[in-house]
Amino acid sequence: MKPIAIALTGASGMPYALSLLKELIKTQELIYVIISTAANTVIAMETDLNLGSDTVAVEANLSKYLDAKDGQIKVFSKNQWTAPVASGSNPPRAMVVCPCTMSTLSAIANGHGDNLMHRAADVVIKEQKKLILVPRETPYSAIHLENMLKLSRLGVVIMDANPAFYQNPKSMQDLVDFVVARILDHLEVKHNLLPPWQG
């Protein structure tokens, strides 16, 4: 099975990203993680996790935090152009940008491949693989909405970090799990976070 790529940008919402990675660890042999400097800072602000400053440390600390097997997570910096995801000859089977800043969404919508994150998303789009963006912003401007519409018309899934309440959440983690469950559903990855709606 080809790996899934997860990109973390500097938007708020790191509990979504870490919970998504925890769930993927259970089913995926290999996960590519692309992390920006801003994302690293936000993780330290929003969680109890300190990843370190270089990709070797980030990979080791993230793997330990998620209880991943050796080699199950491969971390790339956003300037690591030699990464497999930079080439259309070796695309991941899917990619999720979670959380997704509006600047990242804009760059992807307008084909700006000035870092690995943008280039990997461009590869996924052109190779017609699944791309899911999880924006965490409010309110949206007309610029944001136009960029989302452009991407949606290309088949990109725009999945707002927008939990529901019909499942009677008892904790913040329940709200996080709702969004993560929807991401996993679109990745066609099995999970036990949330039962399907039965009416």
Describe the structure.
The model has no long low-confidence stretch (mean pLDDT 95). Helix 1 crosses helix 7 and helix 4 (102-109) crosses helix 6 (142-153). Helix 1 links the parallel strand 1 (4-8) and strand 2 (31-35). Strands 3-2-1-4-5-6 form a 6-stranded parallel sheet, sandwiched between helices. The protein has one domain: Rossmann fold (3-Layer(aba) Sandwich). It has helices spanning 14-25, 37-46, 55-66, 102-109, 116-126, 142-153, 172-187, and strands spanning 4-8, 31-35, 73-77, 94-100, 130-135, 157-158. By secondary structure, the chain is an alpha/beta fold. 42% of the residues are buried. The protein is globular and about 45 Å long.
Name the descriptors.
single chain, 199 residues, alpha/beta, 6-stranded parallel beta sheet
Return the CATH class. Alpha Beta
Supply Rg: 16 Å
Whole-number mean pLDDT: 95
Proportion of beta-strand residues? 15-25%
Low-pLDDT runs: none
Q: Output the number of helix runs.
A: 7
Looking at CATH, which topology would you report?
Rossmann fold
CATH fourth-tier homologous superfamily: Flavin prenyltransferase-like
User: Describe the biggest sheet?
Assistant: 6 strands, parallel
What is the number of beta strands? Answer: 6
Distance between the termini: 34 Å
Strand order of the largest sheet: 3-2-1-4-5-6
What is the CATH architecture descriptor?
3-Layer(aba) Sandwich
Structural class: alpha/beta
